[in-house]
Design brief:
12 helices; EC 4.2.1.46; 17% strand; lyase; 42% helix; seven-stranded parallel sheet; alpha/beta
Length: 342
């Protein structure tokens, strides 16, 4: 463990994975101070920070990284040693309905952070959190870090654009940055529009599970703790200028996940219904993550174990997610998304 005092700026730290990483750093690095910046969009939730909001080493700032003045002031006042950029709009369906906010958060926000890193030379490393979706459909084999980006929806395109900005700042301005591209996250306190929590919460409320298309869309899945450990390895041991794919290597189709959840919750597969497919619904993603093994990282959570833990969390924290699912905005979004049922 590094006992040297450091300040880590985590953007999007009130969101799902950002809040998990904030907690991880506070637990594993007692000499680190965490500056947590989040604009508290619909998916940002201060309840994700319960138990650490008053931690003396944790400083929360309400702010939007798309505002360059706010970003510059934070860097000037807080003087971070490391920056980890989790802040992003992430849901493909929402990017199809309204891509502008994705451009603002994912591209302009990243640009503002890179400009601040460029200006303030005390930054030791900038970690850009990205996604396997930038590679586009991988029908056979696995994408390596050298694979060409072929994004097929607005969300993936904005993340690929941000990645290219990071690479350009590395090559042009010698910005000390690295990029991680991860498979799908899952775990406790994920916003219930995502596939695993929406399946779980629907069953807990006595509703059906709805699947877009035939459910054959396949993704690799990584539990929250494993992803935190991977980003930790990249932050402290990753090579400046490198890209690192992060994956568990465990693939599941949407239909298989629905069946797994029904089995874990002792529900019949008749709870599964199919609805219209959506545009840009890539069939398969897969990552080659050998470079992460070279950093000494391996996933330790099997999908079945992580899923059981996640189901138990949603079962025991219904106040947390019902506060979200009972909001008019969420109900309107849900009805629109699953309006046409086959």
């Amino acid at each position: 463990m590094n006992l040297t005092s450091k300040t880590v700026l985590v953007t999007g730290g009130a969101g799902f994975m950002g809040s998990h990483f904030v907690r991880y750093l506070l637990e594993h690095y007692p000499h680190y101070r965490i500056v947590n910046v989040d604009k508290l969009s619909y998916a940002g939730n201060l309840d994700n920070l319960i138990g650490i909001k008053e931690e003396s080493r944790h400083h929360f700032i309400l702010g939007n990284i798309a505002d360059e003045v706010i970003v510059r002031n934070i860097f000037k006042m807080e003087k971070p040693d490391f920056v980890v950029n989790y802040a992003a709009e992430t849901l493909v369906d929402r990017s199809i309905a309204g891509p502008k906010i994705f451009v603002e958060s994912n591209i302009i926000g990243t640009h503002n952070l890179l400009e601040a890193v460029r200006e303030f030379d005390h930054i030791k490393k900038f970690v850009q959190i990205s996604t396997d979706e930038v590679y586009g459909e991988i029908l056979l084999g696995s994408a390596t870090e050298e694979s060409v980006c072929r994004p097929r929806n607005p969300y993936a395109a904005t993340k690929a654009g941000a990645d290219h900005l990071v690479t350009s700042y590395i090559n042009t301005y010698n910005v000390p940055a690295v990029i991680t591209r991860s498979c799908n996250f899952y775990g406790p306190n994920q916003y219930p529009e995502k596939v695993i929590p929406i399946f779980i919460t629907n069953l807990l409320e006595g509703k059906k599970i709805f699947i877009h298309g035939d459910g054959g869309q396949t993704r690799e899945w990584i539990f929250t703790d494993d992803h935190c450990r991977a980003v930790d390895a990249v932050l402290h041991k990753g090579e400046i200028g490198a890209i690192y794919n992060i994956s568990s290597g465990e693939s599941r189709s949407v239909f298989e996940i629905a069946n797994d959840i029904c089995l874990c919750m002792e529900r019949d597969s008749s709870e599964i219904k199919f609805t219209h497919d959506r545009p840009g619904n890539d069939r398969r993603y897969a990552l080659d993550w050998k470079k992460m093994r070279n950093l000494g990282w391996e996933p330790i959570h099997k999908f079945c174990d992580g899923l059981a833990h996640t189901i138990e969390w949603y079962r025991n924290n219904q106040t947390w997610w019902k506060r979200i699912t009972e909001m008019p905005e969420f109900q309107e979004y849900y009805e629109h998304k699953y309006l046409t049922v086959q």
